[in-house]
Predict the structure.
Amino acid sequence: MISMRGWSFSIGRLLGVEVRIHTFFLLLLGLAISYASVSGATGSRGFVLWFLLLLAVTIREVARAIAAAWYGLGLRSVLLLPTGGLQQYGTPDATDRASSPKIGKRLGLIGPVANILFGLFLGAVILTVAPEINLMERPWLSASHLLRAAVWTNLLLAAVNLLPAAPLDGGRIFRGEFARNHGMVKSTRAAAGLGQIIGAVLAIAGCVLPNVWLIMIGAFVFVGAHMDDSNILLSSEIDPVRMRDVMLTNFSMLSASDTLEDALQQSVHTLQDVFPVVRGGNLVGAVSRQGIVDALQSDGNGYVQGVMTRSFQIAQPDDSLVKTLRRIMGGQGAQLVPILDGDRIVGIITPQNLAHSVNLLNARRRLLRPESAD
């Protein structure tokens, strides 16, 4: 969800839960309006067609949020995607419970079931009020027939999410069941690989038919599956990586009594962007290179202790990388995480060095894998 979150924006909070919408929805809005114009309908009907998809996604996510509350999983945010939604929980324990095979399977089924029931309900209402409407007539999704589209949007969204492709609901169920016998690492890679295959098949089918909606769904499933595979280290049960494995051990520190000019001079000789600040050997804060420059430009020379932040997260060398990242993201994030062995700083983690270290760690494991298999 971290990668996808960067391409989203907040639309408000509901009952303490932040609701975000992916920018891909805006692309679909333009596509829906263009599709309506080309097919002889008005742009406003294209907007309604797009809104029906947003409504269907909202219905399933409301149902999943209710289910999460039933299981005592406190939601922190919901990211609305054209194929469904991603939920982020408020605590690591809630995230772990939601990822368990038993609860994960139930949460995976709630969304499709909600869409199927809502679609059937709409169909029953339409046939009662306007029996002359043929709900089985094609095209099912058309700006010229919005009542029929309202029914099929829900039914097709449910069908798509039942595909065993990550990050769809079916992919989560498949991953949970596969993990029972093969472990989370293999199950994640299997679900992601299958998701990429299904995404490619849907896109190709959309080109052959032709059907622009299939192309868009296939592309999104393919990209989502690739992101799910790339973020494998952030899975709740993939826990062999410790902070000592990825921490930066060759780093510079600043003293709280250093002047800003001296601190800037020291930062010239390192690629480090954020520095731990100590006083008498004790960690008291953190300061960034940019923070030093901004303070010098606005207020002139002063002392590091005047511009450092005193609020920061810490970790120990044997702490789990996954759980530490979740703890940090559960707060306000962090530009620097000092790694302490007792009272001594033995390493640091920054967003820049973490991405680099994880990539190198993965590369090293891939290189050693053939030797381990022999």
User: Anything to note?
Assistant: Residues 232-239 have pLDDT under 50 and may be disordered. Residues 169-208 form the longest helix (40 residues). The chain has two domains: 2-234, 243-373.
